[in-house]
């Protein structure tokens, strides 16, 4: 056994060498895949009550079967043998209740769509967007996928989702016009639609009504303007119940600035998504106005924990700030976390009116799916009026379909003026993104938002320094 | 997998041998059994370290978005690094962190090790308490420290105010964010080196101190002439390990500041993470990882070279 003996010796030596080198090399592998699971900063975070059992059958119930027979040969085997088609549905959740809600909706879909088995898979919001690319890379993409409008540019541009336009055109009863136009645009990229929305909403003003009453400040009128806003905020910046309160919560968050930019006639990018509009005077003025709320008017608190993406909401929920801007997806959170009475108001009018942005989330079909038509039937059910009524009733979100909005309204809990959401949405624009938007967000935070909000540098000066890198990323995105 | 198959085959042979004809020497038998013992961790090492490492070297020559097929770009990722302003900033930040943390960590851990070495009562209790932060999850520690750094209600500024000092906004101030992270990291990590030093201190023969005292050496002289020289191998080990881990700082910056404000706490590994998983530039991320590896390698080599000048082995 000479051969064995010698090969063994070599193996050992090689192994030892390996181990010695490895001790140092360990870190490279560690760097390649950092394994921290960070806490999720979740824009659409919402604790959900279990869905109320719903009896009312709607027209959506009968829509399932018709197209199945006329399908291409690819799908024939499953249909022919009468086997169930197994679909995987991947979507983010933040709580056990949310998971249960979506699973119950999946179960409903299985009843309505014949011969499908829908398996719901989930992860946290942050992990969802990390796992999606790895699923693509490992050819393991589920059939139905969640998509958030702020990430449409990033993910739809990279061929993960299937454009739905043909399916929509071939389907008489999907009625896409029933979806609010802002969210249709938000879930579209370069003119093609990649998801049907389940929830959406515009940024509006949340306010602590108890604080208003205690300070003797009149509640906001629908046509209030920026000066009224500052006056109101100033009157609220005082001690209430022995605790210091500021008028407004102004986080170091680009998304929170944009409604004011829009309302002032500014923008962050041109219509073709090619050229930066940061140095447009209307944009600079609006952002300076926002920063001044903190540093000059002193009606908003200094951001003392800029790494905390929940800073803005914590200010409002805890009662430290009397007003805050966010979307209706935070109704559920505010209901459980704000001890006082609270309500919503329209954004104050700037030079260009009260112009908000809308964002939301929906579901699309993976372009790798083997069961395009079954997936479409399930998607159509989930986002049907019946499906979205369930979403709305469970408080999971302000429904993307206008016909489901009535199911969202509640008279027993705040906010009293919830109808203002629809009014704000009418004039709102989509928050548009491109393929490099995730990188742009990080760049703007570092070079633009933090220097302005945290370090109190003049907006015009910061813009000059930050715009070139931003334009560079816009260019890269346009080419992609 | 090939390795596994080989071992399985070897085991079978071993069994056959034990059953019948004794062909192998005892030494070879033991050697084989030894391999079986290290097999589980060797497998883990190969699967989770060697393979990803080799892969990352390969990936560094590609443009790969994860979502689209990779494209070979040669050395482009490495040349891009030279002109990347953000990369330059994260290197500066990481070096700042390393040079701030390592001396502080050594001073604190050595000081406490010396104190614990005086055979005081409740040694086990103190030692465990000081070691506790090391085994606590960094993410949890970072969250707690974020509250402690809070300028109005946080305990640190409250204490500073009580003694009449104006506290900075810490994490909210680009000037103070990195020092804040360094302070937290010292607290989190000193226990490890302290235990190393404690072990080293307890290995120094008492007779040396007795002899020195008879010769009239005071405490200060005993520290410099006996303790430190005999502890130097441990100090060397501690410096090398702490420098390596400092260059890889990630969790603290990710959880406490997410690299902000204004990029003040963005580190090399955080930038690797961002490039790989947020910007979809796996190739570029891999290239940075290998550059970091190179930097640490050179640094460690340099320390090894200097070793002869100050490290004394008994």
Put the structure in a nutshell.
Chain A is α/β, with parallel strands linked by helices and 480 residues long.
Protein architecture, described:
The complex is a heterodimer of chains A (480) and B (314). Chain A is built from 19 helices and 13 strands. Chain A has helices at 2-32, 76-81, 96-112, 125-137, 152-156, 165-169, 181-186, 209-215, 226-236, 254-263, 281-295, 311-317, 331-337, 372-382, 385-393, 405-408, 420-426, 437-453, 459-479; strands at 85-92, 116-123, 144-148, 188-189, 192-193, 196-202, 204-208, 238-240, 243-248, 321-326, 342-345, 357-365, 429-430. In chain A, strands 1, 2, 3, 6, 12 and 13 form a six-stranded mixed sheet that branches. In chain A, strands 8-9-10-7-11 form a five-stranded mixed sheet. In chain A, β4 and β5 (192-193) form a beta hairpin. Chain B is an all-alpha fold and 314 residues long. Chain B folds into two domains: 2-59, no CATH class; 78-310, Orthogonal Bundle (MetI-like fold). Chain B has a two-stranded antiparallel sheet with strand order 1-2. Chain B starts with a helix and ends with a helix. Chains A and B meet through α1, α4 and α18 of A and α2, α6, α11, α12 and α13 of B.
């Amino acid at each position: 056994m000479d051969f064995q003996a010698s090969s063994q010796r070599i193996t050992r030596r090689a192994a030892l060498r390996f181990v010695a080198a490895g001790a140092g090399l360990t870190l490279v592998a560690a760097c390649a895949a950092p394994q921290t699971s960070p806490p999720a900063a979740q824009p659409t975070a919402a604790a959900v009550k279990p869905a109320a059992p719903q009896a009312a059958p709607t027209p959506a119930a009968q829509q399932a079967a018709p197209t199945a027979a006329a399908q291409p040969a690819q799908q024939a085997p499953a249909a022919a043998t009468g086997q169930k088609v197994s679909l995987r549905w991947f979507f983010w959740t933040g709580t056990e209740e949310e998971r249960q809600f979506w699973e119950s909706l999946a179960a409903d879909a299985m009843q309505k769509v014949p011969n499908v088995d829908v398996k719901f898979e989930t992860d946290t919001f942050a992990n969802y967007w990390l796992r999606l690319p790895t699923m693509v890379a490992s050819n393991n993409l589920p059939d139905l996928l969640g998509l958030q409008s702020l990430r449409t540019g990033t993910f739809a541009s990279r061929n993960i989702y299937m454009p739905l336009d043909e399916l929509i055109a071939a389907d008489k009863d999907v009625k896409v016009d029933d979806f609010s136009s802002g969210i249709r645009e938000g879930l579209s990229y370069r003119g093609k639609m990649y998801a049907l929305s389940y929830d959406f909403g515009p940024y509006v003003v949340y306010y602590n009504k108890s604080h208003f009453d205690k300070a003797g400040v009149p509640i906001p009128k629908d046509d209030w303007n920026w000066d009224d806003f500052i006056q109101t905020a100033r009157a609220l910046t005082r001690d209430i119940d022995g605790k210091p309160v500021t008028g407004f919560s102004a986080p170091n968050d680009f998304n929170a600035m944009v409604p004011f930019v829009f309302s002032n006639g500014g923008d962050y990018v041109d219509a073709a998504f090619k050229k930066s509009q940061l140095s447009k005077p209307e944009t600079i003025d609006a952002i300076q106005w926002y920063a001044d709320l903190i540093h000059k008017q002193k009606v908003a608190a200094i951001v003392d924990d800029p790494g905390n993406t929940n800073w803005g909401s914590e200010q409002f929920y805890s009662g430290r700030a009397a007003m805050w801007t966010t979307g209706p997806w935070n109704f559920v959170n505010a209901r459980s976390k704000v001890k006082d009475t609270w309500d919503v108001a329209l954004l104050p009018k700037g030079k260009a009116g009260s112009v908000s942005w809308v964002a939301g989330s929906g579901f699309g079909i993976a372009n790798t799916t083997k069961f395009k038509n079954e997936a479409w039937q399930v998607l159509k059910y989930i986002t049907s009026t019946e499906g979205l009524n369930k979403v709305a009733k469970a408080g999971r979100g302000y429904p993307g379909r206008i016909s489901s909005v009535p199911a969202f309204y509640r008279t027993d809990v705040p906010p009293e003026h919830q109808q203002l959401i629809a009014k704000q949405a009418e004039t709102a624009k989509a928050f548009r993104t491109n393929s490099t938007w995730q990188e742009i967000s990080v760049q703007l935070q570092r070079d633009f938002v933090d220097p302005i909000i945290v370090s109190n540098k003049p907006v015009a000066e910061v813009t000059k320094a930050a715009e070139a890198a931003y334009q560079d990323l816009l260019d890269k995105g346009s080419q992609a | 997998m090939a390795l596994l198959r080989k071992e399985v085959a070897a085991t079978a042979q071993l069994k056959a041998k034990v059953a019948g004809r004794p062909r192998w020497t005892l030494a070879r038998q033991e050697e084989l059994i030894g391999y079986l013992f290290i097999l589980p961790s060797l497998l883990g090492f190969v699967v989770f370290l060697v393979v990803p490492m080799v892969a990352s070297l390969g990936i560094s020559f590609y443009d790969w978005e994860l979502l689209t097929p990779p494209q070979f770009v040669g050395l482009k990722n490495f040349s891009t690094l030279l002109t990347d302003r953000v990369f330059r900033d994260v290197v500066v930040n990481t070096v700042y962190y390393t040079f701030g943390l390592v001396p502080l960590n050594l001073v604190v851990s050595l000081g406490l090790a010396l104190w614990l070495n005086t055979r005081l009562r409740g040694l086990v209790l103190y030692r465990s308490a000081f070691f506790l932060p090391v085994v606590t999850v960094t993410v949890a520690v970072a969250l707690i420290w974020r509250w402690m750094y809070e300028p109005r209600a946080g305990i640190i500024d409250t204490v500073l105010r009580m003694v009449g000092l104006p506290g900075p906004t810490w994490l909210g101030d680009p000037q103070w964010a990195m020092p804040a992270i360094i302070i937290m990291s010292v607290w989190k990590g000193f226990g490890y080196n302290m235990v190393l030093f404690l072990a080293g201190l307890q290995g120094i023969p008492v007779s040396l101190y007795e002899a020195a005292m008879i010769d009239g050496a005071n405490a200060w002289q005993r520290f410099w002439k006996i303790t430190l020289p005999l502890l130097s191998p441990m100090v060397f080990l501690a410096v090398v390990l702490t420098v390596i881990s400092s260059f890889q700082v990630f969790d603290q910056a990710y959880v406490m500041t997410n690299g902000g404000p204004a990029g003040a706490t963005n580190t090399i590994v955080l930038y690797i993470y961002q490039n790989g998983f947020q910007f979809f530039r796996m190739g570029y991320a891999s290239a940075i990882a290998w550059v970091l590896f190179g930097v640490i390698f050179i640094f460690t080599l340099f320390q090894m070279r200097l070793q002869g000048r100050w490290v004394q082995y008994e």
